[in-house]
Design goal:
Radius of gyration: 50 Å
Strand order of the largest sheet: 1-2-3
Oligomer: single chain
Number of strands: 5
Helix content: 55-70%
Shape: elongated
Order of helices and strands: EEEHHHHHHEEHHHHHHHHHH
Length: 495
């Protein structure tokens, strides 16, 4: 049975035998609808496949394939570096930093002074020789805190802005710096100075450098008396003070940040365990850099050992897979090197383990060598190693969370793909039933045509019999009128 809907869709009625009896159902079909639906689902399946591929690649990259051997190497690297740190590296000391920085600065001053005058004998002579290179901004030092103008006046800063303002001041006749009272940026006219006296730009840069050298160890008189001297701000303190001059740091007419930096430079904040105060000047910054560098050595060693091991393992695997040879195929070898150098989760996990062991070993030795004193423990902790361990743990955790998120996304993509495949199967099944219905319709139309032809043939046969009967009646009437008519007709038919 077939029905026709007003929207042009065909409804095919089908009958199916079940255990509960006959069930009749209808399937609606529309020309081209199945092909369109299948095309949309195929497109969605292609997009889903690309999404799954991206997710699988990300999961593979974020999966740590650390074997027992790898863990053993990571522990060994961390333990070796920790032993070197705990046994051979001294405790952090401001006193050592001051001595190291002072020694480095004295050597710098002596070399520069002897280039100008080979007859320089000692540090005092060297400072006196370099002081002959005049900085015009010194004439305005009373406008920038007379005893501490090296901090407030920018031309005495060993930084890019210090150089810029020193050169600018020489050609404009101005001094630039920070107002000690308000902490605001300040411009002061240099009395009695004519910019026309200034020479070339190169000379201005050279004079800035030499004059700073003369101030690094203090004045000539302070050196003669054996005093430490004021010195100049180092690059870090210079940068911070220059940033602090921005108006955003001022509140109620005060700049607390500048005041705190001034106290650092004056030596009111940095104190050693014995209570001695230390100025944070250029000499101290050099010394602190050296002290921190000592702590950085075991950290760098651990980093290099783990990275080199992982690089060698990956390079061997890549060369084995690609068949690359160092001497025969250099292009493929360098491609293998590039592939082996890429970051991977296994290396990150090994670094986390190695730095964890390094930090644990360092803390153990710090505890033993401190003699039970908290102050002794604090100066022996390798803070760079602890910070690197914290970074490694943070990265490892972040990668694990990202991997978990990717796994969840893969599960969603797989469910979506399953639903799409089920929808496609349903549409294919529906299309099969429609085609079955359409085939039944064709068979029914054929049967109806055959029935129509059979009925017409039967009617033709009946009409033929009636014509023959009528002819017989006419022959009987003709014989009555003419008895010889039948014989003549027979002869005609035979001829």
């Amino acid at each position: 049975m077939e029905k026709e809907r007003t929207d042009g869709n065909n409804v095919v009625s089908l009958m199916q035998e079940t255990e509960e009896g006959k069930v009749e159902f209808e399937i609606e079909s529309k020309e081209g609808s199945f092909d369109s639906d299948l095309a949309e689902i195929d497109t969605a399946l292609e997009q889903n496949a690309e999404r799954l591929k991206r997710v699988e690649t990300k999961i593979d990259r974020l999966t740590a394939r650390v074997e027992l051997r790898d863990y053993g190497v990571a522990v060994g690297c961390g333990l070796l570096s920790g032993l070197l740190d705990g046994i051979f590296i001294d405790a952090f000391s401001l006193k050592n930093a001051k001595e190291y920085g002072s020694d480095k600065i004295e050597k710098m001053i002596m070399r520069a002074a002897r280039k100008k005058n080979p007859d320089v004998k000692d540090l005092a002579d060297a400072v006196h020789e370099l002081e002959k290179v005049v900085n015009p901004a010194d004439s305005a030092n009373d406008q920038f805190a007379f005893t501490n103008h090296h901090f407030y006046e920018f031309s005495h800063h060993r930084s890019f802005l210090g150089l810029f303002f020193s050169v600018l001041g020489r050609f404009t006749g101005n001094a630039y710096g920070i107002d000690p009272k308000t902490g605001a940026f300040k411009i002061v006219r240099i009395a009695g100075y004519s910019p026309a006296e200034e020479g070339s730009l190169l000379k201005a840069i050279k004079d800035w450098h030499l004059h700073l050298l003369s101030d690094m160890a203090g004045s000539h008189n302070s050196v003669l008396k054996g005093n430490y001297g004021t010195g100049i701000p180092g690059p870090i303190l210079s940068f911070l003070s220059e940033v602090a001059s921005w108006k955003g740091f001022r509140k109620d007419g005060k700049n607390r940040f500048v005041e705190w930096l001034d106290e650092l430079f004056e030596g009111d904040i940095l104190k050693d365990l014995d209570g001695e105060k230390y100025r944070l000047d250029y000499r101290m910054e050099l010394g602190l850099k050296h002290e921190i560098g000592k702590q950085a050595f075991p950290v760098i060693l651990t980093e290099c050992l783990v990275r080199f091991y992982r690089f060698a393992i990956k390079l061997f695997d890549v060369m084995k897979q690609t068949g690359a040879r160092i001497l025969k195929d250099k292009s493929r070898f360098f491609q293998a090197v590039k592939e082996a150098w890429k970051s991977d989760r296994t290396r990150d996990r090994m670094l986390t383990v190695a730095f964890g062991v390094l930090t644990a070993t360092d803390l153990f030795f710090a505890t033993i060598r401190s003699g039970g004193r908290l102050s002794g423990f604090l100066v022996r902790v390798n803070y760079i190693g602890a910070a690197r361990f914290a970074v490694a743990v943070t990265k490892d955790v972040a990668e694990e969370l990202s991997r978990s998120s990717s796994v969840a996304e893969r599960e969603r993509a797989i469910r979506e793909r399953t639903e799409l495949l089920n929808s496609k199967l349903s549409i294919l099944n529906e299309g099969t039933w429609v085609r079955i219905g359409q085939t039944g319709k064709s068979v029914k139309e054929t049967n109806e045509t055959i029935n129509d032809v059979s009925e017409q043939f039967a009617q033709h046969q009946i009409a033929r019999r009636e014509d023959l009967n009528e002819i017989g009646s006419m022959l009987e009437a003709a014989e009555k009128q003419d008895p010889a008519f039948t014989d003549r007709l027979k002869n005609v038919l035979e001829d």
